[in-house]
């Protein structure tokens, strides 16, 4: 399975901060925001990832992440000239996906939780084994700003509605989706919405119409953080700082994840840590390498 990070858009809700820099390159505490969705794909065991962004911002992503070799991964890049909807990611990434299954994660979504790896591996395994699509439902106080899952009396999914004025449940669909190899064809058949966008909800509802959509509910102990506003960025940073300072381990430390998932050896981890040794982040990597014995 391959992954796509959609990191385009103009970040208008964060202007003037984002007038000259991509939102997903802004810091969430001690890391660029894009590290968080990248870490989600890595936790799912995905090693081939396409980063989709604007022509202006792609050079910065290449400078930040490179070709992925330091992480034991393959990273590629593609342009989305204008934001025309989330489903366009599959049209932009069709050649990269080569007809195989994929996971799409939005570049401004932060996920964290003790069972996150298990949840991700289960979703990936289900799609690779049975086909179809897996999306998630996350309980929120006000679901009007999201795609919202509708259930029948037996808690079966009967619909997903985009930004409804009167939500039919409290379960929003966060920006993380797993699809089988037919997703590019499904996306190609999506008709632009009244907003003029290729909505991801239209893709999900087509899978639902086929009887091939599963919704996994995220409950207590799982965090999904919105970073679309200055307040959201601040709250996400405070959350990361609190977890890291109190528990002593780092959230979305992509080098550590690459090591623990077996993408790279401890020697590579130490090499990166030494290059950042003047920072707390680098010293943390060295401590993880020391724990492993520091060898290859």
TrEMBL record:
Assigned keywords, A-Z: Magnesium, Metal-binding, Nucleotidyltransferase, Transferase
Protein's UniProt name: Glucose-1-phosphate thymidylyltransferase
Keyword Zinc tagged: no
UniProt xrefs under Gene3D superfamilies: Spore Coat Polysaccharide Biosynthesis Protein SpsA, Chain A
Catalytic function, reaction form: dTTP + alpha-D-glucose 1-phosphate + H(+) = dTDP-alpha-D-glucose + diphosphate
Molecular function as annotated in GO: glucose-1-phosphate thymidylyltransferase activity; metal ion binding
Membrane-spanning segments: none
Task performed by this protein: Catalyzes the formation of dTDP-glucose, from dTTP and glucose 1-phosphate, as well as its pyrophosphorolysis.
Taxonomic lineage: Bacteria, Bacillati, Actinomycetota, Coriobacteriia, Eggerthellales
Keyword S-adenosyl-L-methionine: no
Cofactor: Mg(2+)
InterPro entries for this protein: G1P_thy_trans_s, NTP_transferase_dom, Nucleotide-diphossugar_trans
GO BP terms in the entry: hexose metabolic process; polysaccharide biosynthetic process
């Amino acid at each position: 399975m391959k992954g796509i990070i959609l990191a385009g858009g103009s970040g208008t809700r964060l202007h003037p901060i984002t007038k000259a820099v991509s939102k997903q390159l802004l810091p969430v505490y001690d890391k660029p925001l894009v590290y968080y969705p990248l870490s989600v794909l890595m936790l799912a065991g995905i090693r081939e990832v396409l980063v989709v962004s604007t022509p202006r911002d792609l050079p910065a992503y290449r400078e930040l992440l490179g070709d992925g070799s330091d992480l034991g991964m393959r990273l590629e890049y593609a342009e989305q000239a204008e934001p025309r909807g989330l489903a366009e990611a599959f049209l932009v990434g069709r050649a990269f996906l080569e007809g195989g299954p994929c996971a799409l994660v939005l570049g401004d979504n932060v996920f964290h939780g003790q069972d996150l790896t298990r949840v991700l591996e289960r979703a990936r395994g289900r799609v690779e084994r049975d086909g179809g699509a897996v999306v998630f439902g996350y309980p929120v106080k006000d679901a009007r700003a999201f795609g919202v899952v509708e259930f029948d009396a037996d808690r079966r999914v009967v619909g997903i509605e985009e930004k409804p004025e009167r939500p039919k449940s409290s379960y929003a669909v966060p920006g993380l989706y797993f699809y089988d190899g037919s997703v590019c064809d499904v996306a190609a058949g999506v008709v632009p919405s009244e907003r003029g966008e290729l909505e991801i909800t239209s893709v999900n509802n087509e899978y639902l119409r086929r009887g091939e959509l599963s919704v996994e509910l995220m409950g207590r102990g799982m965090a999904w953080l919105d970073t679309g506003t200055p307040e959201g960025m601040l709250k996400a940073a405070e959350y990361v700082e609190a977890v890291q300072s109190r528990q002593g381990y780092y959230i979305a430390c992509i080098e550590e994840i690459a090591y623990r998932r077996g993408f790279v050896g401890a020697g590579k981890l130490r090499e990166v840590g030494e290059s950042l040794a003047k920072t707390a982040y680098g010293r943390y990597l060295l401590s993880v390498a020391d724990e492993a014995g520091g060898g290859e």
